[in-house]
Amino acid sequence: LGRPSLAGLLADLDGQVAHGRGPSEVVVVDDRPWGGTPEPPLDVSGVRTPTRVVRTGGRGPAAARNAGWRSSGASWIAFLDDDVRLPDDWSDRLHADLRAAGPLVGGIQGRIHVPLPTGRRPTDWERSTAGLSHARWATADMAYRREALVRVQGFDERFPRAFREDADLAVRVSRAGWELVRGGRHVVHPVRPASSAVSVRVQAGNADDATMRALHGHAWRTVAGTGRGRLPLHAATVGAGLLAVVAAAAGRRRPARVAAAAWGLLTLDFLVRRVQPGP
């Protein structure tokens, strides 16, 4: 995506060779959009590990990862986000995870550590990023057996954002008969700098929740292990607000007051849950 954090990740991957066994090859997928001002090509010439660049032209993370793994003949593909940092023994621990994998293991997740600030409460964006530390099957560090990816045809490119495409893949790999396990390796995922409007922008991910529900049914959160959502409460909040407006317009003052009070209490509950933990 052109983020400067990629240089740090490539340096960490390059450093794995000095501390043990590095990857057989590194594939960097350049998903910057085509057109407009030409983007300078990514320079990976200084990386000692065999490294190449695949361009996808801004089609999103699902399409980018598909292009990456399909361009490689490796039996295992370890996906990493461009903003994670690797400890010196990451590659050694990855090899240990792969050696321990039985023949039915299709995916092995790494642990994700998100450092948070000390001395103050984390912001909403920082708490959102910290959710990766207990997320299941996040492709910030997720290794998949190539055979499993081929069987399910990889990531579903109908997911345009980096949000639910990893959960969808895990569900389909599991349903295809493969086991998904947690490994012993870990990465560090710093919180990216973001504007104060980021908490509003990420709400676009609710569209991906709707896609998950359409693809995997109403119990998709249980199947994907994403935890409970607030959609029923959001629907009740909007419904109460609409009822208050309609009742008031019809001159039904008592129902309007009851509906408005319900809207107010539900909205207050939402605000407290989002604001109380931090700014």
Topology, please?
Layout: H1 5-19, E1 26-30, E2 51-55, H2 61-70, E3 76-80, H3 90-100, E4 105-113, H4 124-130, E5 141-145, H5 146-152, H6 165-175, E6 179-188, H7 198-201, H8 206-216, H9 220-224, H10 231-249, H11 253-275
Parallel strand pairs: 1-2, 4-6
Antiparallel strand pairs: 3-5, 4-5
Helix pairs in contact: 10-11
Describe this structure in words.
It is built from 11 helices and 6 strands. It has 279 residues and is an alpha/beta fold. The strands form 2 sheets. The chain has a 4-stranded mixed sheet. A two-stranded parallel sheet has the order 1-2. Helix 10 (231-249) runs antiparallel to helix 11 (253-275). The protein is elongated, with a radius of gyration of 22 Å.
Overview in brief:
By secondary structure, the chain is an alpha/beta fold. The chain contains eleven helices and six strands.
Task: Count all strands and give the number.
Answer: 6
Number of helices: 11
The main sheet comes to: 4 strands, mixed
> Could you tell me how far the N terminus lies from the C terminus, measured between alpha carbons in angstroms?
28 Å
Q: What is the chain-wise order of helices and strands?
A: HEEHEHEHEHHEHHHHH
Strand order of the largest sheet: 3-5-4-6
Rounded to the nearest angstrom, the radius of gyration is 22 Å
